[in-house]
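Assemble and predict.
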Amino acid sequence: AQSVTQPDIHITVSEGASLELRCNYSYGATPYLFWYVQSPGQGLQLLLKYFSGDTLVQGIKGFEAEFKRSQSSFNLRKPSVHWSDAAEYFCAVGSADRGSTLGRLYFGRGTQLTVWP
Amino acid sequence: NAGVTQTPKFRILKIGQSMTLQCTQDMNHNYMYWYRQDPGMGLKLIYYSVGAGITDKGEVPNGYNVSRSTTEDFPLRLELAAPSQTSVYFCASSGAGGSPLHFGNGTRLTVT
């Protein structure tokens, strides 16, 4: 069965500190992987995506993520967090296999990020 | 660009009432989706559509219905509202080729 695990429900970091949000997935097909960010009262905004190729992908707002197939992980990182990064972050997986419904994503439960000044 | 527009933003329903959540997109996307978001649970897919006239169930379709008569619109219908349907509902759309989802700002629904 498809599933996405974000083991950290809530993370608190100081502004300027580095950040890593964990994501592990279980998926029987070739995966597409995404990270989305949600600010309060807003919809989800795409941070970055992995389809194939280079396993280190760059996204918006200085975020990056690394796909590790052997560990079934797609962790999100940022070297220096800004107060405006406080939000909820969702990891999602979809199928890259031909015939699958692209965009039918499975989401993790989210990680709430708090940034201390 | 408006992107994905959802109406209403907020709604309170009594048990047993019905309503339609509206969703429209102006990006000419073939794929459209309805997700619900419950606290600490992430997003669950309710229904999706791969084009006008074609819809299919997602993970949690019970209690909901959809239709897709045009490329732009994908309304979600609740026929007999129940407290378990209290949630935030998100509509999304995407193009072909694995392009990412574009989300609306959500509809917060309370059923009491």
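The mean pLDDT of chain A is 90.
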